[in-house]
């Protein structure tokens, strides 16, 4: 436990709005007196639900429900935790929360409960991040994978790597005091190079899994080029299939939809509709459009949707000319049920062309496969745990240090130093030595109450 006494924090843990039950969570040190006060003098047993009135300062009940007391260290945060399960109405919850504050708690900051769990070694950083990812999961696959990370599968793979690295570092550092030249012989005898190659291979495996996990979280960004009536909405619906329905984000003042999101095999597909990228004098709308163009910069693919009977219009060509040159394109000719063409893939002027019908569904599966292949999604096998761009970055940095170590193999000191740096990069993932600003950045993105 930390030596500093942190203030007691309180927050409504359940989602805003009405519900059968609403939960208020408190965390702090020595919360038994508060648990007593909140239950009107009862002495709650550890981890046993007590049904009780929640009285205010004058003894008048604010609500009734269950009180749970989790003494440290056997709680989510590692501190004393109290949970009040009351009636889930906004007014009831606010009154109860205000009462907790009057008893000396302060309002929790976003992610503060999880941050305390991290500081008390209940979770490492990758696990703490997966709490948010699990809550924000956009698909069942993403939720299952986030749960894997939360239960420590990702962290264990990082720990295994770090253990291998530590072993090699110990070996290397033992040689640093050796007389000249002998260290290299010693390392050769211990097959340090072989060990390094083994670590590189393990890291590549973790990186590949993490990349899949990051796809599951980030999805793919697709720029949709297509004139009114070519079948954009119909195609979105056809692509979404059985997955959760379309999320449409109508930009503040614009009537055109700029972004939509659907799921394909659990992978979020973020669509930017270029029909919304028109010229305008409206300042607010210009801001939205600037943001959208910035998103276009990061896109993975441009999908050019045409009516198979009409083909590419001048307006389409104009938009295509403004897209980043590096952006791969896929031309989709829709409404083959009207044009009489067969579904399938071909090529035209060096561009890939897919023919399909959003209405009949003919050829839609091929488009799904093409989209997933474009970003390298290999399907959610058992090994996929959710990962973030931050984790990929740390893994890539560690890989670069291993490469450097390979080159500097004959210089024990440099070799040892590269290994040390690789270990440091990996520890960024689990947060062993993380700086406060990184923690602030990660936990600040949580909602209050987590
Ligand atoms: P959007 O304006 O690009 O979003 O196009 P919509 O999806 O709203 O479709 C415009 C019209 O074309 C609607 O009447 C659709 O039912 C029709 N449509 C879309 N796709 C197809 C298709 O593959 N075949 C046929 N026959 N009609 C389609
Ligand atoms: Zn539409």
From TrEMBL:
One of its GO terms (cellular component) is cytosol. The keyword Lipoprotein does not apply. InterPro entries: G_TrmE, GTP-bd, GTP-bd_TrmE_N, GTPase_MnmE, MnmE_dom2, MnmE_helical, P-loop_NTPase, Small_GTP-bd. It comes from the Bacteria. Mg(2+) binds at residues 233, 254. Keywords: Cytoplasm, GTP-binding, Hydrolase, Magnesium, Metal-binding, Nucleotide-binding, Potassium, tRNA processing. Its EC number is 3.6.-.-. GTP binds at residues 229-234, 248-254, 273-276, 357-359. Residues 219-376 form the TrmE-type G domain. Its main location: cytoplasm. It is found in: Cytoplasm. Exhibits a very high intrinsic GTPase hydrolysis rate. Involved in the addition of a carboxymethylaminomethyl (cmnm) group at the wobble position (U34) of certain tRNAs, forming tRNA-cmnm(5)s(2)U34. PANTHER family: TRNA MODIFICATION GTPASE GTPBP3, TRNA MODIFICATION GTPASE GTPBP3, MITOCHONDRIAL. Its cofactor is K(+). GO terms for molecular function: GTP binding; GTPase activity; metal ion binding. (6S)-5-formyl-5,6,7,8-tetrahydrofolate binds at residues 25, 83, 122, 450. Belongs to the TRAFAC class TrmE-Era-EngA-EngB-Septin-like GTPase superfamily. TrmE GTPase family. Pfam families: MMR_HSR1, MnmE_helical, TrmE_N. GO terms for biological process: tRNA methylation; tRNA wobble uridine modification. Homodimer. Heterotetramer of two MnmE and two MnmG subunits. It is an enzyme of class 3 (hydrolase). CDD domains: trmE, TrmE_N. This is tRNA modification GTPase MnmE. K(+) binds at residues 229, 248, 250, 253. Binds 1 potassium ion per subunit.
């Amino acid at each position: 436990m930390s030596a500093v006494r942190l203030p007691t924090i309180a927050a409504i843990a359940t989602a805003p709005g009405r519900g059968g039950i609403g939960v208020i969570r408190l965390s702090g040190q020595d919360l038994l007196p508060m648990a007593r006060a909140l239950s009107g003098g009862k002495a709650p047993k550890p981890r046993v639900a007590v049904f009780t009135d929640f009285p205010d300062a004058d003894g008048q009940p604010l609500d009734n429900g269950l009180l749970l007391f989790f003494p440290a260290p056997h709680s989510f945060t590692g501190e004393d935790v109290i949970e009040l399960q009351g009636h889930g109405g906004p007014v009831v919850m606010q009154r109860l929360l205000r009462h907790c504050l009057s008893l000396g708690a302060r309002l929790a900051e976003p992610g503060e409960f999880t941050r305390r769990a991290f500081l008390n070694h209940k979770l490492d950083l990758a696990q703490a991040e997966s709490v948010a990812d699990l809550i924000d999961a956009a698909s069942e696959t993403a939720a299952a994978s986030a749960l894997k990370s939360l239960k420590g599968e990702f962290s264990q793979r990082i720990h295994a790597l770090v253990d291998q690295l530590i072993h090699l570092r110990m070996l290397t550092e033992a040689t640093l005091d050796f007389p000249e030249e002998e260290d290299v012989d010693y390392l050769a005898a211990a097959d340090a190079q072989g060990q390094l190659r083994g670590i590189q291979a393990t890291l590549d495996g973790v990186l590949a899994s993490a990349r899949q996990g990051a796809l599951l979280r980030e999805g793919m960004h697709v720029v949709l080029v297509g004139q009114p009536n070519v079948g954009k909405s119909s195609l979105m619906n056809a692509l979404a299939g059985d997955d959760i329905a379309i999320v449409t984000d109508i930009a503040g003042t614009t009537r055109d939809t700029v972004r939509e999101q659907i799921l394909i095999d659990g992978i979020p597909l973020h669509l930017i509709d270029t029909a919304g990228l028109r010229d305008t004098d409206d300042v607010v709308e210009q801001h939205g459009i600037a943001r959208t163009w910035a998103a276009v910069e990061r896109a993975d693919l441009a999908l050019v949707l045409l009516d198979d009977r009409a083909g590419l219009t001048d307006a389409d060509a104009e938009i295509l000319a403004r897209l980043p040159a590096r952006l791969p394109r896929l031309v989709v000719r829709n409404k083959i049920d009207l044009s009489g063409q067969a579904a399938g893939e071909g090529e035209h002027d060096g561009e890939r062309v897919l023919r399909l019908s959003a209405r009949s569904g003919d050829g839609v599966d091929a488009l799904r496969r093409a989209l997933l292949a474009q970003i390298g999604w290999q399907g959610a096998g058992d090994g996929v745990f959710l990962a973030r761009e931050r984790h990929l970055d740390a893994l890539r940095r560690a890989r670069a240090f291993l490469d450097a170590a390979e080159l500097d193999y004959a210089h024990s000191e440099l070799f040892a130093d590269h290994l040390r740096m690789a270990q440091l990069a990996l520890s960024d993932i689990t947060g062993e030595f993380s700086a406060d600003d990184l923690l602030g950045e990660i936990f600040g993105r949580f909602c209050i109450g987590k």
